[in-house]
Design goal:
The structure is a single chain. Helices cover 18% and strands 34% of the residues. By secondary structure, it is α+β, with helices and mostly antiparallel strands. Among the domains are: 16-72 and 423-684, Alpha/Beta hydrolase fold, catalytic domain (Rossmann fold), CATH 3.40.50; 322-413. The strands form 8 sheets. The chain has an 8-stranded mixed β-sheet, sandwiched between helices. Strands 8-9-10-11-12-13-14 form a 7-stranded antiparallel β-sheet, with no helix packed on it. Strand 17 and strand 18 form a beta hairpin.
């Protein structure tokens, strides 16, 4: 590796053959993969890349510091969540001024009753570069706490316990678990999913009894198919334990009565490829969300003796071609249903009997409404959250009997923020094949003219059926207040327009995601929403794949691109079953051992399609301990870009040596990265930059 004072690192070329059933590819930078993360050469290269970033961004440091102060200055320092009631206690988390990590607590009797600290993350995170709590579960008798924590950033949690009577941590520690756990009825045993330390797949459900050796924890379920994820849960009425086995397109649920000391699980309905379902229980009925004969899902109910007899399920909410049943919550007297209609997420209330069903209203063109903490099945109140590009996250309690809506909290935005100063639009943009792509945009009214003069930042994701909703971000205000238009392109591969929208952006249809994103950009420019010379794109993980592919396919369209932990070496990764999570991804991307998928992935893989051409300025991030997108994918991509690109535009890579997929932990620490990203964009957006 060669590096001058202000010259970029040059990674050594060490040709390596990558074999497949369809031929051999040569990867010059395969050597950057070090699963042990101990190679001197690799670590030296990564540190050199980060040092180069620091040097090349030094001129922006005053702007970065200013942006950081702006962003942090909008955040209320001493803040707390809205308490919710569960099993006789009110639960919340709160921050004190200056704290990176919250305190989890509960209050007795009422929302403002005496407080008991459950877990002080400030104490647990002290001295650590990274700390995250995955799950916090209180025993049924309210006396014990089970929690999972990650101290590396690799989503490899360890299970720990605390006495809520004495405040002492118990000696039991169970390593290598998934984040979710659930208590058995005896308040002595906890069900968890064991995680393979190499593949990071959770294939076995074990039971830990307090005071025993975790090495001997019995297995109550073992998943044999490595395409499936496994999780544990509890029905809302606390009558049944659940084990959920899910792949991209198939589900199988097992259940056991909570009071069964033997923990014998029965299959709810045997898996059948292509059938996805989820269940909950209330009264004497099972409620099932299913895509059986319903591409956009429907809701059904079944009695206990008919769980495995699909033909005897009774339809509650029928299938609709234009409405996706995205989720549901059960109550004694009604169902609360999350629906996605014309790109937007809404909440519908359906009483079990009597009154007619109805939607909870909204009066903005683009928003997201979602069910929140509703832990008590006998409640007549539905708690939900609401947000838009101009409305901070807002929590409401809705009385289903009277229609009264009570505002509990709107996330505070300090400073001179006034939502009336901003305008949001929800646009339907024509794609090249005739489809229309929903695009939500926001801008500051006083600074925007639809004359092609505004800089644009466009975000996209488009994978796994995950929808990119128009959410409020106080950080984005720093761009809007400098004249930017911010756009969210709801490209195919997400589920904004229903399941068909998702299916049209995966497997052999993935090209639609890239074309939608590019076509949305071109339309916004053509319609005067953006300055053609100051267009930026941003995406992370699978969204990083999206923007990296756009950089290859339409390099002249973007002035700069921000790619967070981008999934860019798709073919090599999907050929290697030893890489964490690969086998779970075949139904999303395809199995490259099959020729059709191999050729198709190869046609768009960003790493494989880097060529000798001009590229946008690029700001790339990676985390050494990333479990979702291995650090060497962005590293190899950057190395190859440095060698082949024909322009002299900026290319930097931020390397988090102590973090994983989500970057640094802590409330404020990651905002330094946001500020640097925005400084990159603003620097590149200066007039005259070419």
């Amino acid at each position: 590796m060669n590096q001058g004072p202000l010259s970029p690192p040059v990674a050594a070329i060490r040709p390596h053959e990558v074999h497949s059933p369809h031929g051999v590819r040569v990867d010059d930078y395969y050597w950057l993969r070090d699963d042990a993360r101990t190679s001197t050469d690799v670590l030296e290269y990564l540190r050199a890349e980060d040092a180069y970033r620091v040097a090349m961004t030094a001129a922006w440091k005053p702007l970065e510091d200013q942006l950081y102060r702006e962003i942090v200055g909008r955040i209320r320092q001493d803040d707390s969540s809205v308490p919710y009631r569960d099993n006789g206690w009110w639960y919340l988390h709160r921050y004190d001024t200056g704290d990176e990590y919250p305190v989890y607590a509960r209050r007795a009797g009422s929302a403002d009753g005496p407080e008991q600290v459950l877990l002080d993350l400030r104490e647990h995170a002290r001295g650590l570069e990274y700390y995250d709590v995955g799950s916090i579960e209180v025993s049924h008798d309210n006396r014990l706490l089970a929690f999972t924590e990650d101290v590396v950033g690799r989503r490899q949690y360890r299970l720990r316990f605390k006495s809520l009577e004495t405040g002492e941590l118990l000696p039991d520690v169970v390593p290598d678990v998934e984040e979710g756990v659930v208590w058995a009825a005896d308040n002595r045993r906890v069900l968890y999913v064991e995680k393979d330390p190499v593949t990071l797949l959770g294939l076995r459900v074990r039971v830990h009894e307090l005071g025993t050796d975790p090495a001997h924890d019995p297995v109550v379920h073992e998943e044999s198919d490595e395409a499936f994820y496994t999780s544990v849960g509890l029905t809302k009425d606390r009558r049944y334990l659940l084990i959920d086995s899910s792949s991209t397109v198939t589900t199988e649920v097992r259940y056991a009565p909570l009071g069964d000391p033997a923990l014998v699980f029965n299959v709810f309905l045997p898996r059948s490829r292509g059938h996805e379902y989820s269940v909950d229980h209330v009264g004497e009925r099972w409620v099932i969300r299913s895509n059986w004969q319903a591409v956009n899902f429907r809701l059904l109910e079944a009695s206990g003796e008919n769980t495995g007899r699909r033909e005897r399920w009774h339809e509650l909410v029928p299938h609709r071609d234009d409405v996706l049943v995205a989720g549901f919550d059960v109550f004694d007297n009604f169902l609360a249903i999350e629906e996605r209609v014309a790109g937007l997420r809404k909440v519908r209330i359906r009483p079990w009997a009597g009154a007619r069903e109805f939607h909870i209203d909204s009066d903005e063109p683009a928003y997201r409404m979602a069910l929140d903490a509703n832990e008590e099945v006998d409640s007549e109140i539905v708690r939900y959250t609401y947000t838009s590009l101009t409305t901070p996250r807002t929590t409401y309690d809705y009385d289903t009997r009277t229609g009264e809506r009570v505002l509990l909290k709107r996330e505070p935005v300090l400073g001179d923020f006034d939502p009336a100063q901003y305008e949001t639009e929800y646009l339907w943009v024509p794609a090249r094949d005739g489809e229309c792509v929903p695009v939500a945009i926001v801008y500051r009214r006083s600074l925007f003219r639809r004359d092609g003069s505004a800089p644009l930042l466009q975000y996209g994701y488009g994978a796994y059926g995950i929808s990119s909703d128009p959410l409020f971000s106080s950080s984005v205000l720093s761009l809007l207040d400098r004249g930017f238009v911010y756009a969210i392109a709801q490209v195919r591969g997400g589920q904004e327009r229903g399941r068909r929208w998702y299916d049209a952006g995966r497997l052999l249809e993935k090209q639609h995601s890239f074309e939608d994103f590019i076509d949305a950009t071109r339309w916004l420019v053509a319609e005067g929403y953006a300055d053609a010379k100051r267009v930026f794109a941003r995406g992370g993980s699978a969204g990083g794949l999206l923007v990296a592919a756009a950089a290859n396919m339409a390099p002249g369209l973007y002035r700069g691109i921000v790619a967070h932990v981008p999934f860019v070496d798709i073919v090599t990764t999907m050929l290697d079953e030893s890489i964490p999570l690969t086998t779970n991804e075949y139904d999303e991307w395809g199995d490259p051992n099959e020729r059709a998928f191999y050729d198709y992935m190869l046609s768009y893989s960003p790493y494989d399609n880097v060529t000798a051409q001009e590229y946008p300025a690029l700001y790339v991030t990676t985390g050494l301990w990333d479990s979702q997108v291995q650090y060497y994918e962005p590293a190899k991509w950057v190395a190859k870009l440095r060698r082949l690109k024909t322009d002299d535009r900026l290319l930097v890579m931020r390397v988090n040596m102590e973090a994983g997929h989500g970057g640094k932990s802590g409330r404020f620490e990651h905002l330094h990265e946001v500020a640097e990203e925005y400084a990159f964009i603003l620097d590149q957006a200066q007039p005259g930059r070419e």
